[in-house]
Amino acid sequence: MTNTPSGVLLDIHTSALAGMGSMPRHFERWAALAADESYPDADLSEELFRSRLISGDDTLVSLWDRQLTAWDFAENPSWAAGSPARTDERRAVVYERLRFGSELCKTLDECVPVAKVPGTTVVTRKFTPWYTPERAAARSFYWSAYEQKLRDKGWPEAAIASLDQASRSVVERLTDPEQPAARQSKGLVVGYVQSGKTANFTGVAAKAIDAGYRLVIVLGGTLNLLRAQTQRRLDMELIGQENILRGADPSDVDSLVGVDYVGDDEGWPDFVRHGGRPSALGAFDIERLTTRDNDYKSLAQGIRALEFEKRVPTRPLHDSANLHHAAARILVVKKNKAVLTKLVKDLKQIHGILGELPTLIIDDESDQASVNTSDPKKWERGSTERTAINGLISKLLELLPRAQYVGYTATPFANVFIDPGDDMDIFPSNFLISLPRPVGYMGVQDFHDLDSPIPAEERTYANSQERAHVRGIYDSTGDRLQEAMDAFVLSGALKLYRADHGVTSGAFRHHTMLVHESLRQDDHADLALRINSMWHQAGYSSTSGHARLAALWEADFAPVSAARGNDLPSPSSYDDLRPYVHSARQRIGSGGQPVIVVNGDTDRYFAQLDLDFDRTPHVWKILVGGTKLSRGFTVEGLTVTYYRRTTQQADTLMQMGRWFGFRPGYRDLVRLYIGREEPFSRDKSVDLYEAYEAVCRDEETFREQLAQYSVMVDGEPQVTPVQIPPLVAQHLPWLKPSARNKMFNAELVEIRSPGRPIEPASYPMNSTVIKRNAERWRALLQALDATPVSFSNPPDNSSTLTRTFTALTGTVTHAELVGVLSQLEWERPRYFDPHLTYLRQLDGTLARVDDWLLISPRLASENRIDASIFGSVPLSLVRRSIQAGKSSFGRIASVEHRTAAQRLINQAATGSGTGIGSRTGIVLVYPVVEGSSPDSVRAVVRNGVADPSKVVMAFTLIPPKSATSTDHRLVRFRAKDKRYGDDATIPAS
What we know:
The protein is 35% helix and 15% strand. By secondary structure, it is α/β, with parallel strands linked by helices. The strands form nine sheets. Strands 1-8-2-7-6-3-5-4 form an eight-stranded mixed beta sheet, sandwiched between helices. A six-stranded parallel beta sheet has the order 10-16-14-11-13-12. Strands 21, 22, 23, 26, 27 and 30 form a six-stranded mixed beta sheet that branches. The radius of gyration is 31 Å and the shape is globular. It starts with 5 loop residues before the first helix and ends with a strand.
């Protein structure tokens, strides 16, 4: 092995990989070609390559990290032999094409593991491909700069590749900016609350501008505080210093008049640098029509700032001869009537070129203010009346025939239920994209034990998200506000301790606590006064104060950090932490005010708060507020949340989840104090934690459905955007279309679920109907044998132990089961019809199912209440609760029961099991009693017999995997009124 310098090897590898283009090729040949002229004696052996990787050559590892990740993420490339993206199979194909030996492959896998993250889910109409990899690579000035900026910020290659893929999925569904015919495209991108949607639309803007879009309008919030956050982000990561300075000399104060950031923003050195004016580097400039401090204003001397020079005057602006030499314009504007009215007015003045101008409208938080909420019943006949912002967005779309509209939100249902038949509205008629959950994001799965198989009494800080992060507020606990404030001080001290012991302090720049109890501003003032008084009486420098903090440290933070943050420095005792408590207290109480009330309605109000996370060096405060803290506004450094506000709106509830987000270096310190028994009406209380879980389950179900049905069948989409509303309505009955004088023309008629659980939720509430349904189950229940059968689940990710349960079992024919299911009544008529349509065809029409194994699980003996139903053998009654604000149960089947059933189905499909045949399905049967305690169950049993009017016969079906057709289609729609053809809506009459 010769001593080839690292720099030489890096040059050779860089040139070889660049020469390959977009596909992996025989690496040894390309490396030899790259070395031939400059480094003919270089050692190109795999042995040297491997040794440099093992020794930790960061630049070489980084190069291969970038390249392998790009190949891993490539969607359906011709060279991949059908291997799925982001899998071991794809990586194996890459290595085979590179012709690497097994030892080198093993080392590369250790240095660059396959990022097995979910991809972007896309529901789309068919579109004409134009944004090819070659075209994207040919013009990528701003995307390349943004990509490098993300790298400089420390983004891992997998995260950058995921953003690249997601942003490409959006841009390729916009209209080709160079095409002669004007056409609009409308779409919706669904992310998670505080999950980095801005990063995605910055990437979309970069790629769209590179491709030829020359006017970008970003609708950013309803307050300048929110708009300025978005403006600064785009200025820093996309537009860059040279476009902001526009030739001004940063060292010449006189030339900087009107230039923002320079001299008053400590982040200015971190703004993207292009190395010169882009127009001088063969690209084009970006001109800002808004700045950090100034929203759009009517421009002096008409609209000269929006006039576009044409290199070839006889050709339209969208012709490539003109388009790629013209500067782009970007505006970040509030969703404000006055501001948007000025923009519409100015655009009208240059109407001559508007038909030639490729425009991109990005609507951040698109379900806020943008949706038309006017009552159709009050419209004049034949007209559509719009709310102010919706009307102005529609006007922009009317004025700009080449405008593309892309909405961004974490709560998509309001947008999905916009009238798709209104061509001037913002229904995402062309595409709906669901972004994957980002790596490092703390979301609902990090605060809730969703479907955890671990019994409540066995949950610990290590295996339970709720135990680790959630602190319930009950009548019996008192309000726990002092404890929450102590947790805020303690977590701040721990951040300072970690910063002093080698953890990068950037994530600890801001440290905040959010208190959200009420919508009313008077309540905020009272609460802030109370917290301020509590702060000054807390005695954080006294013996009693330290004793209180030490107790909280010992009981809460020390064990949670030991279980969740064992890779982070942690004090061995409270005495080691005590000096940092003093520093944290000083930061929080600086200026004599630990509390900031955030509830104003004006920009002037927010300007005086000094709550600018970008320009303020350290914001260590307790924030008290309501709606203004619940949407769009990013609360940096949020560590402790105290939440007790009730609402009946699911999307409002979801947007209030400010505790979701990225918490690098302090995930284990995050605490949520949340009301579990909050007054909701005169005689009712609500568990806010459970309410959140119910809403989040609905959102996850929606995302799962999108992923399931987004798979193309024979090159055709199974679901198009206009068919999404009835799909969602099936699961969220309280959501209605906004246009009440219309109905959706798409009707969901069949859902096929081969090898997948079917778990209904809309069981009847009326006792008479409940009894009728129970009687219909009588014949099937007679098939259950009285002798229990044991089922077991082997150790897996959820537990290192084998878990067992017993159940009564029996077998019924397919015809017997379908006969019973066909008679059942539901809270919502025809609710189960799409599933029944599928099940009825399993008589050999679509596929054949011979029989079904009934499994009636028995609860643990100490909790079990058995009773007979219409003469059946005694069955274990199950207690379940109705979801908050709904007329349906949450999940019925236990995770352990469903896991065992699914394993039987999977084994039958592969022939590896002996439990059931390949044409046998499984039915998990649960006699359910609605209630909040075991007493609720006991109350329905007398002398070992259950009152059938109070027992809901609930079930989960899992058809065999063979129960499918050759085309593998999973969902089917039909038009309710064929006279309207492909129309999205029809008159409700």
